[in-house]
Amino acid sequence: MSVQMWTYVFVFLSFSLYIGIAIWSRAESTKEFYVAGGGVHPVANGMATAADWMSAASFISMTGLISFLGRDGTFYLMGWTGGYVLLALLLAPYLRKFGKFTVPDFIGDRYYSQTARLVAVFSAIVISFIYVCGQMQGAGIVFSRFLEVDVTTGVIIGMAIVFFYAVLGGMKGITYTQVAQYCVLIFAFMVPAIFISIMMTGQAIPQIGFGSELLDGSGYLLDRLDGLSQELGFATYTEGQRSTQDVFFITAALMFGTAGLPHVIIRFFTVPNVRDARRSAGYAIIFIAILYSTAPTVAAFARANLINSVSNAEYSAMPDWFGKWETTNLISFDDKNNDGKIQYVGDAERNELTVSADIMVMANPEIAGLPNWVIALVTAGALAAALSTAAGLLLVISTSVAHDMLKRTFMPSISEKQELLYARLSIFVAVLIAGYVGMNPPAYVAQVVAFAFGLAAASFFPAIVLGIFQKKMNKQGAISGMAAGFIFTASYIIYFKLINPAASTADNWLFGISPEGIGTLGTLINLGFAYTIARFTPDPPDDVQELVENIRLPGES
Amino acid sequence: MSNTSANSYWKANIKLVLTLLCVWFLISFACGILFVDVLDNIRFGGFKLGFWIAQQGSILTFIALILIYIRAMDKLDSQYKQASSNDAQDTEGEAQ
């Protein structure tokens, strides 16, 4: 069977599975719609969290980015896994004990203020919306490349699927489809990784192959990669190029951001009790680590493979995959010296090959000459990654509107049935808007993803941690901290990413911190404001202090 | 609910979390970023140690930290339940 046929088969099978789950898991109450009834098993929640978390970016782009960044790519790996330590130790158990539906629920009740609730609603919607547009766009691109439909059709198919299970099933439908999507995506990621590791090093476990000698006798993989990089004038693979403080700040911003992203936090509201919240954080990190510890190995294998296949090779003799990816502009060749050979070198003047980071996962199986069904599997995996994350984000938007804004703020008298209807309506509208943005992507979508992490790090993370660990933290401190962190981080990123991208160089950055890492400084500014202002304003009321004492103790929800 | 057992539970919890976060910082930020070049002088197999910690070891450490936390908190929870039910009995005894 051809790759095309296999792709249709896998996509059809996986989508039928998601639709089947959607029909089976219709939500009947707001509790089911918001937190899947609160009865999700910790293993299932761990898988759902992993799928919720690992987006199109993790699945498709991250490996390629690491491939080109070498050791600097570490900030993605540590940042996007280390945040789970913070989440597990500082947030998840206490928020579960608090036992409501959303992050603005916690912020509003803990800081006894509708203003705080609305600031949280605003941040949650902005963060989730930026993130979801990227997912829709990712899904559209995957569809258009592999199924040979145009991006618009691709986005519509993606929207229809997400719409089906998110609107019908809410969190309940999303949770169980995410479990299925995790299985699909991890299988799709691991199979090519294992294949390529066996091919290149004879080791079935990629993490071991990573440190092994190559079968072609050219020594250890990483040494060979360092050697090739130096020979061709690229940066040495296992050495860093970015400044230490920048890597430090980016890693911290991604960690704080991970722990403060509302769509990840709300997953911990779905388990029965505090003990299960801790357990599911443990399962989540294990399920996530399977992909995150494999990604750098694939990055290294793919990079070595790419250099070996293209460097100084005759252009006319390149295999099929080269032409196929050329038509998508993910790889492009410009024969500057007209010798008919591909010069792939670090020197921009002489370099003739431009390779997009996304190609490393999507074309890697073809470059390595793996069987057709393995190549096709990658499509189903990438779609699972994009759709599962999109659904989780849409739910945050829907709960923020229906629960936090309407029920808890502006229309407290609506019945549960009406609230559920509003929740479904808002998810419907959110799907439409996200789909529209996915079809007409603004040029800067990829760049503003840094926003989501920076903003979550600078607004939610400190406010929630202080709310749990500082009994005396009051509403004035928390609100001003969130506002200051949010505004500072947003202005810095908007300035360097949107208004004046030309000025975005290490010399112009504040303390040499890139916009990707500025969320860390935003976190510190948030904390500074919160502590200073809380010192000069009244303590929180007694019932709030009791609430804090209560969430610190174990016991039934 | 007794205040003494609640306080000691919370103190033990803070101590545990701080200890684990020290390891978290030490492995990821100290070994993986700040001192990575120094550690790269040590080699095992095909890996430089600093590079390996940054791209592999740190992730394994994160898993270990969360698993240790889960176990330690389960223990702490059951100790607390024991202590608070003892406290409750004591207070009852005094009342009689």
How much of the polypeptide of chain B forms β-strand, as a percent range? under 5%
Low-confidence stretches of chain A: none
β-strand number of chain B: 2
Sheet with most strands: strand arrangement of chain B? 1-2
Report the end-to-end length of chain B measured between terminal Cα atoms. 18 Å
Which quaternary structure do these chains form? heterodimer
Structural class of chain B: mainly alpha
What does the main sheet of chain A amount to?
Answer: 2 strands, antiparallel
Helix/strand class of chain A: mainly alpha
Instruction: State the separation between the terminal residues of chain A, measured CA to CA.
Output: 53 Å
Radius of gyration of chain A: 24 Å
Mean pLDDT of chain A: 84
**Unreliable segments of chain B (pLDDT under 50, ≥5 consecutive)?**
none
Largest sheet composition of chain B: 2 strands, antiparallel
The radius of gyration of chain B is 21 Å
Which protein chains make the most extensive interface, counting residues with beta carbons within 8 Å of the other chain's beta carbons? A-B, 45 and 42 residues
Give the topology string of chain B: H per helix, E per strand: HHEEH
Keywords:
heterodimer; A: 557 residues; mainly alpha; two-stranded antiparallel ribbon; 1% strand; globular; B: 96 residues
Description of the molecule:
The complex is a heterodimer of chains A (557) and B (96). In chain A, 71% of the residues lie in helices and 1% in strands. The model of chain A has no long low-confidence stretch (mean pLDDT 84). In chain A, 58% of the residues are buried. Chain A has helices spanning 3-24, 30-35, 42-53, 56-69, 74-98, 103-110, 114-146, 151-201, 206-209, 221-232, 244-260, 262-265, 274-310, 320-327, 359-362, 364-367, 372-410, 416-439, 449-458, 460-469, 475-499, 518-535, 542-552; strands at 331-333, 353-355. In chain A, strands 1-2 form a two-stranded antiparallel sheet. Chain A contains 23 helices and 2 strands. Chain A is mainly alpha-helical. Chain B is mostly helical and 96 residues long. Helices cover 86% and strands 4% of the residues of chain B. Chain B is built from 3 helices and 2 strands. Chain B has a two-stranded antiparallel ribbon. In chain B, α1 packs antiparallel against α3. Chain B is elongated. Classes of the chains: A mainly alpha (557), B mainly alpha (96). At the A-B interface, α5, α10, α11 and α13 of A face α1, β2 and α3 of B.
